[in-house]
Design a protein that fits this description.
Blueprint (H helix, E strand, L loop, with lengths): L7 H14 L4 E6 L4 H12 L7 H4 L2 H5 L1 H4 L5 E8 L17 E2 L8 H20 L3 E4 L7 H7 L4 E2 L5 E2 L7 E8 L18 H5 L17 H7 L6 H7 L2 E3 L3 H4 L19 H4 L3 H4 L4 H7 L10 H14 L6 H6 L6 H14 L2 H11 L6 H7 L3
Amino acid sequence: MNKYSPNEEANTEAIRDRALGLGFDVVGFAPAALHENARERLSDFISNGYHGDMGWLAERTQQRSQPTDLWPEAKSVIVVGLNYGQDGDPLDALAKPERGSISVYARGRDYHDVAKKKLRVLARFIADDLNGDVKLFVDTAPVMEKPLAARAGVGWQGKHTNLVSLSAGSWLFLGEIYTTLSLTPTGDSQDSCGSCSQCLSACPTNAFPAPYKLDARRCISYLTIEHKGHIPREFREPIGNRIYGCDDCLAVCPWNKFAHKTSEPDLEARLELRWPRLADLGQLDDPAFRRVFSGSPVKRLGRDRFIRNVLIAIGNSNRSELSDLAEARLADKSPLVRAMAVWALSRLLTPESFENLHDIYRGEETDVNVLKEWVGD
């Protein structure tokens, strides 16, 4: 026999209390349906090619844009948010060119693991105590998380397209539970960006063609995390020392005045990931990379793409003492790494020294993209 009333309002409050008791910072409820404008924005994003290499975004678009197409029995969506805010200015690392800047969200334990553990407990409660069928998601299915969060009153999508919360500012991980229960909707969040455009102006690569539109192909987070190939030359200098993600548009949002430090220990930044030394990171082989980033979302990037990013940061560092490290990567097995080693050396060495290295290595190199870097193409 259930210990809660079967009525909609009582179930909603029971789920809210349970979610907050599990450590989620915010919880909201929405019907299992998205507004037409959310579907239009997704269609526009895909048709313009703004998704770049992220082919999975173009797949199952109908299921992504309408929750009941993913699960026809769903009646309500529960959206939870987990604050990952940190102490200090997240952009402080950008002033330390000899060190790498890792996005705030990736400095602690992988949020997928942290949020999913709590979400499973909440889902079990709904299934066992409230007799609701459930499906849970943490960035792992064709779910439009941010529009659903806005519909559930958790926050609104700002001009940078990310979610902004009145209680947590820009630093919020999202998770969803689809359920067959009818629950009381929280109500849509209202856009409170007003005339502010600080997030758009802060972008180092001009990734916003217009307010509320993102061209991921120009976004540093996309380029350093999702993009699997060689990073186009025009973006390398603006990347600076950002070796995994970018927080610029989030960090400058005035609504962060309401942000606070996370209360979740697993999401607190590991000391070694706050301002890691490029000299240390550039020497990582695959086993060492896996060991250093065990339990971190950075691990999913893979060693070769990560070292690609590190070498771009080294090239931007203006630290000639790092040239030996870059030179050692000229013999790396990965063409991604070798290419960026060449680019880094072209910026750290004198033209004469660079040409001497070219004379040594050009007879051994067979990859066309690495050869292009030697001639500055």
